[in-house]
Amino acid sequence: MALKKYKPTTPGQRFKVISAFDDITATKPEKSLVAGKRRTGGRNSEGRMTIRNVGGGHKKKYRVIDFKRDKEGVPGKVKTIEYDPNRTARIALVYYADGEKRYIIAPHGLKVGQEINAGKGTAPEIGNAMYMSEIPFGTVIHNIELRPGQGAKMARSAGSYAQLMTREGKFAILKLPSGETRMVLQTCKATIGTVSNADHQLEVSGKAGRSRWLGRRPRVRGVAMNPVDHPMGGGEGKSSGGQPRSRKGLPAKGFRTRSKKKASNKYIIERRKK
Hints:
Layout lengths: L2 E3 L5 H4 L2 E3 L14 E3 L24 E3 L12 E7 L8 E6 L4 E5 L9 E2 L12 E3 L8 E3 L1 E2 L6 E3 L7 E7 L2 E5 L5 E5 L3 E4 L15 H6 L54 E3 L4
Antiparallel strand pairs: 1-2, 3-4, 5-6, 5-8, 6-7, 9-16, 10-13, 10-16, 11-12, 13-14, 14-15, 15-17
């Protein structure tokens, strides 16, 4: 997954760094696995703006991804690696032996023609989905379930992964991408390997227009606003704005907003670093 730098022939090309898309093997998605996707523009059901800086962007179709990996005992063959506009990772189209087709999030190193499996007795190889009880210690994993059969919820974005540290009782202990250490039931599934397109974080849009294509509208700094609009607004000249806080007045940069009564706190052994 290489990156592509451009010669500064225009101001927009000067700092542009984007993916070379050399890992992609198909340009059109599988029709049976595509669904329509509506945009809200940050508005709720009453038409009021509830999320700022959202709107516009290129039209997208949603690719239906198999996060559950419940085709146990049925081998599948990777047909294509594709671009997905709805996520940072690449996706892989899998043809199963019984004739079914599904999309999965492509792990780094997955090749076209490779065979993948899921369920009990599966080998710990890239792309295979296994139960926590069978994954060897120290293995790098992604697409992790929080509840058995729920479908993957953690470590799904480009380049992310977690590591299985040990097992205690009915729980497996994982080191998550954030640095948090937490317990997950051994009956939950995870996929072996790291998520593809790890270079995504190094991409540079190069111009405001590329952000608009992605549906991101301009974001005004709080310091540049008036006191009525933001806690950090107002002042003569370029004032620093005092303590950094959100538009609603919550302190930013280090202030922890997680509830002390949250039910899942008992599963967290060590919180993510500040």
